[in-house]
Amino acid sequence: LGPRYDRNEVKGVLDNCKARYALHAHKDAIDLTCEALEAGKMVGWFSGPCEFGYRALGARSVFANPANAYACDNLSSYLKRRPSYFAYAVAINEDRCADDGIRSPYLSRSTQLSEYFGDSPVRLQTVSKSEPSGLHDSLDAFHKRTGVSALLNTSLNYFGEPIACTPRDALKTFYASGLDML
Prior knowledge:
Blueprint lengths: L6 H10 L9 H13 L4 E4 L13 E5 L6 H10 L8 E5 L15 E4 L1 H4 L3 E7 L7 H12 L3 E6 L11 H11 L5
Parallel strand pairs: 3-5
Antiparallel strand pairs: 1-2, 2-6, 3-6, 4-5
């Protein structure tokens, strides 16, 4: 529901800030993201229209691999500065939950994914194919590459800051937070 920025607008901000970057086709960006996540890195994702509200639903997100034993600790320590017992959001494709009848596109359901989090609860986001951010495609690609069907998903912002809305906000979060890739 929020603003969207085209490739030229994003490129203009990156050029103005003298950032090192490479332009990639969407599929290549997904492949690079999956490679980084598999290696245990935290990845900022800025794509499509900004979410309305304080929840990251895939357009302004930080993703991490839930199979990485340190992912939650790293998110808590370096990015969010919050207690490690706070529940994280986990994005999973809606079709992977179809048999259970679970639908939670806005992180409104708490559940357990014991293969990654034991008895700890997580907030679940089910992602449909129509998601404009490309999150569905990213989840599919990551699952095919690693066998892991979910991603940790938290908002693209640094501790005490609002969710990144503009390309400049995303770049500021990247440089301030210890993210490995944006």
